Every structure is written in C-alpha cells, then in structure tokens.
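Reopening this one. Same input as before:
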Amino acid sequence: MTRLLLAGATGLVGGEALALALRDERVTHVVAPTRRPLAPHSKLLNPIVDPGNLPLDADWWTADGGLCAIGTTRAKTPSAAAYRAIDFDYALAIATRIREGGAPRFALTSSMGANAQSRFFYTRIKGELEEAVAQLDFPSLTIIRPGFIGGNRKESRPIEQFMNRFLRIADPLMPAVARISPSSTISALLIDAAIAGTLGNHRINSAAIARSSRTAAVSE
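Same output, byte for byte:
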C-alpha cells in the first residue's frame, strides 16, 4: 500500500488530487502540508506549515510517492520575487525533501511551453523548476505540462471563465495540443504517477492530457 505526500492541496488541481488519493484503495495515508487547515479525514495528515520556513526535520516527510501541484498566478502574486518564491523555491524545497525522505516516485505539474531559456517569465520559471527537479534523480519522475486548465475554481477569475467557455465551444475545431486540460484529468495522472510511475523520466503534454480526458469520458 502507498503513503503519498501531496503539495498544493488547496489549489484546483491539488484539491482534486487530494480527493482522489483519499478515495483510492491503493493509498493508506496522505500527507498534505498546507498553510491553512484542510477538512479532516481518517487517511489524512495535514501539517500546517510556513512556506518560507519548512520543518525539514519533521518525521512526516517519508513517503512512497510525492506529487506537487503548487502554483500561483501573476494576478494573485504580482511581485516577480514573490512569484518565484512560490512557484520555484517552495516547490523545489518540497521536492527536495520528498526525495531525501526516500520517495522513489514524483509527479510535478508544470506548464505547456516550459523552458528554462524562455523569454517569458512564467514558462521560464516552470522550465527552471523542471530542470532542478530532474537533478534530484527520482527513479521515476513524471512531469505534466497542461495547457489552459479547466475546472471549477473557488475564486472568481472572469478572464479565465471567459476563456474556459470559449475553448469549450471551440474544442471540436482545436488541435489536441490547444484543447482545455481538465483539472480532473491532470489530478488523476498525478496520482497514478505517484503511486505506480514506471522507471525513468516522463513528460505528459497537453495533447496527451486531452486524449486521456476523452478516453476517460468515453469509458464512463
């Protein structure tokens, strides 16, 4: 059975991944460090942490698999330094400690177009994080690169709501790489990779996410 450590459980993708993990019979325990408390569950350990001062000597870091769905937006975090502190520094610190805790499998949510040499700040940070996590030498590393993430967000984001509606209407005409990446599909891919990821480094792009989403819809 599997003990998972999940970072980013209060976000859209991370929240859905947490719900999936708690329902999954393969998972015995989920450790989800957050800044604010989560709803209690018999399988859940929820350490309350300060992202700038992680308790690196805590005994809950040991896991069979880890996954990271940490991320913010420039609208919520307009400072470039604060943005990098969350999307790069905090995410890498979590991944590093998970690896030091012995986890052989790790799954990371990145972004379409991630490239450490990108001219664009967002995709450059994601690319730098991918490269840094790869240096941790997880026996099994899965990096998921979604496009526009669709799902039911708790907070109101008018521009994203408009894009979500537009892309849903245009979906039949769009190439797979440009289609919405459903948060439910991303979270399922993260969980499967953290539980049963195969040896090696794997990347799942937005086209593969779209195909996986359609396959899941047909099988329901």
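So the earlier flakiness isn't reproducible anymore. For the record, The chain is about 40% helix and 15% strand.
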